[in-house]
Every structure is written in C-alpha cells, then in structure tokens.
Amino acid sequence: MLDLLVRNAQVRGTAGLTDLGVRDGLFVPIEQDARETIDVAGRLVTPPLVEPHIHLDAVLTVGQPRPNVSGSLFEGIAVWSERVKDLTVEDVKTRVRQVLRWQLANGVQHVRSHVDICDPSLTAVRALVEVREEARGQVDLQLVAFPQLGILSFDGGRELMREAVELGADVVGGIPHYELTREDGVESVQFSFALAEEFGLRVDIHCDETDDDHSRFVEVMAAETIRRNMSGRVTASHTTAMHSYNAAYAYRLVNNIKRAGLHMVTNPLDNAVLQGRFDTGPIRRGHTRVKQLQEAGVNVCIGHDSVMDPWYPLGFGDPVQAAFVFVHLGHYSGDDELRRLLDMVTVNPALALGLPNYGIAEGNPADFVVFDAPTDVDAIRLGSRRHLVVRAGRVVARTEPAQTTVTWDGDEQPVTFLRG
Ligand SMILES: [Zn+2]
Questions:
Q1: pLDDT tens column, 195-238
Q2: What is the pLDDT of residues 33-52, one digit of tens each?
Q3: Which of 5, 48, 121, 277 is surrounded by the most beta carbons within 10 Å?
Q4: Which residue range is the domain that position 280 belongs to?
C-alpha cells in the first residue's frame, strides 16, 4: 500500500497527466491502494525549487539603521556596514527563519546563502550554522563564506575566511572586483580556491558585479578551476561586467568558462536596480550574457539575491518572480526559452549545488511542488502560487487556490486568467 497517491499531475517535461506513488518518503511505482490520495486536477508538478544565491543574513533589514536613499550598490554596502554592528545571533536567526518559511511556501527546499564574514565576531555565520541544523530536512542550506568588504582589503579578511570555514561554511566565496587593486583581486580568487581545495569545499564567488568592462576576474576563476581540477564544483555569480566586454574577449571567455565547467548565476532582481547607475543614457541592463553562455553549453541559474535588504527593498523569496523579471532583462521571451525557464530555478541550480537524488523519479525522495497553473508558461505569466509543497511525501506548505469573480451584465462569473 502507498502512503500517498497523487492523481492527475502534469509533471513538468512529461506529456499528458500521470499519477505519482509515494512510500516511506520516496517515489515508488504506482499502486491503487493508498492511505491518502490527492487529486491535483491537471496542475503543473515540478521538483523542488532551488535557490542558488541569496543573502539570508541581510534579509528584512531594509530601512535599518537608515534607508538606502539613492538605491545604489555602494550606499547599500555603506548601510549594511552600519547594520552589521547591531547584529546578534538571535536577530539573525529570527529574520532568517521568517524568510526560510516564505521560501518553503514558495516551493524552495534547497538554498545556498552567502553569509558576510567581514565582522570580527562572525555573528551571522554562527547564527546561520545553527539555523542550518534547525531547518535540515525541511529546507537544506548551503552556507558560503562571503567577504562583503574584501579578503585582502578588509583587516583580518584571510583569517576570518578561514575561521568561517572552520565554523562550518560549506562553500568559499569572494568579491575580487571590490578588492583594492586588480592584483589583489587575482590574489583573492587564488586564496579562495586554495582554501576550498584544502577543506574539500565548493567555490562560489561574487565576480565582476560591476559595469566596468575592465573587471575581468571570471577568467581567473576559469583558470584556477582548470588548474586545480575543480570542474563542476565552482560557481561564478552576477558577472554583470560580461555584458560590457567586447565581442572578441567575451567569445574567448565563454569558451574558457565552458572548458572549466563553471556554473553561472544571474540575479535579475538586484542587478536590474543596482547596475547602470553611472550611465547617463542609454542605460545598460547590467546583466550577464545568459544566451551566449547557454549556447556554449554552460549551466546558468537564476538567483533571487536579496529580500528586503539595503540593496533590494522588495521580494518575498519566490524564484518565479526572479525568473519573470529575467524574461524581460534577458530577452528570454521566445517560445522555447519560456518553456526552458523553470530549469533555471530547478534542475540547473540543483546541478550547481551538487544535490544528489534530485528530481521526480522512482527511488528519489518524494519532494515536489504543485503549482496552481496547468503549464510552465502560465506559472510564470501569472506568478502562480504553489498549491502544495511536499517534502519526503508530506505536505509541508499549502496555499488554497484563489477564487475570483467578475460581475458582467449583472451576472457573477468566475475568472481564472487562463485561456479558454
Ligand atoms: Zn549576491
């Protein structure tokens, strides 16, 4: 007998409706007897959403201790540096727990969070390590030791990076374009790779998050990955400068990214508002070269980056909202592109994070999401709520479908926003 039978699922990437069987928390072959049956009535069913890039330590701090009036990256960093002085473990944990619950309600079951280590007490790292244990089995967290103010440029940066790793960071970060010189930037990337190699960790570096076309540290990441044989274990995040490189350099770089097996994360929400700030017109989109990377066979993911913090005042932790904005920033509105889009918040980041046994297949954990929409494109177009979020065969979040009516010619009629 099954524990759960899910009927009439429009499983993403599968033609027609299918049923799903669950026993002992795993997907198993269908049987007719089940303790519980849920008819999802043709709704889209996907594997869990995967958030490859967020800054949980800063969530919900918008306006603290003061608002970011200009909205720029640099004022955001200045505001955050003030807020860091007030961090306590309890303050961080309370905010992180709240956003993790939002993410889970949005179908996110795996999260990679950068955590600022430019704080001699490492308060945020200590708090996140505790929350990671608390949340295990509901939302799985990977923590990146992230030097917001630089590794070489911040007093004690190297030691704090090492201490964060010893406290339990899963991934080593970096921010080479923020270091004092080009040479320091190169050295910081080499430092991060050496630290990761020493502890057997992955690398995820904030790289070239600027409109400066002379910011060229992704090439250093590709070279380090190739030389240290770390293909598949390294992610370059943001890489917005790539949009401004000349075509010949970009061509060479994309080939080297492919050769190195780097994963790439684009963050359309934050970068739509943070980049192009020094342009007087035309204003660049401040975005990386997603299509060119994908044409070369590179794995590209979409990240959310910020939720109500000094850099981005909006958001509620929903990767589908980030994907919707990406469609516009990235000119990703072609028919095939819209159908592939959800890959960038599911299977692609699952690959970047190295998640084992991910996906709707017999023998894998019965983790999945039921959208209140029949297709991928409808889910993106409507920003559809997640009707059910299921972890190991148990419903862990539920949103009742909205019911809307209009009165038309005196007659109250339902409206679904779906084409007939
Ligand atoms: Zn970031």
A1: 999 999 999 999 999 999 999 999 999 999 999 999 999 999 99
A2: 999 999 999 999 999 999 99
A3: 48
A4: 49-353
Beta-sheet pairing, 411-415 with 404-408:
antiparallel
Output the CA–CA distances (angstroms, integers) from residue 308 to 55, 81, 141, 275, 333, in the order listed: 10, 16, 20, 18, 27
pLDDT of residue 344: 98
Contacts 24+ apart (CB under 8 A), 152-160: 152/179, 152/180, 152/184, 152/187, 152/188, 152/191, 153/178, 153/179, 153/180, 153/184, 154/118, 156/120, 157/117, 157/118, 158/191, 160/117, 160/118, 160/119, 160/120, 160/122
User: What is the value of pTM for the model shown?
Assistant: 0.98
pLDDT tens, 103-114?
Answer: 999 999 999 999
Q: Which CATH number characterizes residue 388's domain?
A: 2.30.40.10
Phi (first) and psi of residue 320, to 5 degrees:
-70, -30
Percent of the chain with pLDDT over 90: 97
d(CA 313, ligand 1 centre) in Å: 14
Distance from Cα 54 to the centre of ligand 1, integer Å: 6
How far is the centre of ligand 1, averaged over its atoms, from the C-alpha of 1 (Å)? 46
Q: Are residues 79 and 182 in the same domain?
A: yes
Ligand 1 center from residue 311 Cα (angstroms): 10
Q: Is residue 418 part of a domain?
A: no
Which among 51, 179, 209, 224 is annotated as catalytic? 209
Letter string b/e over residues 194-227, b meaning 16 or more CB atoms within 10 A of that residue's CB:
ebbbeeebbbbbbbbbbbeeebbbbbbbbbbbee
Q: Do residues 60 and 27 touch, judged by C-beta distance below 8 A?
A: no
pLDDT at 420: 76
209 is catalytic: yes
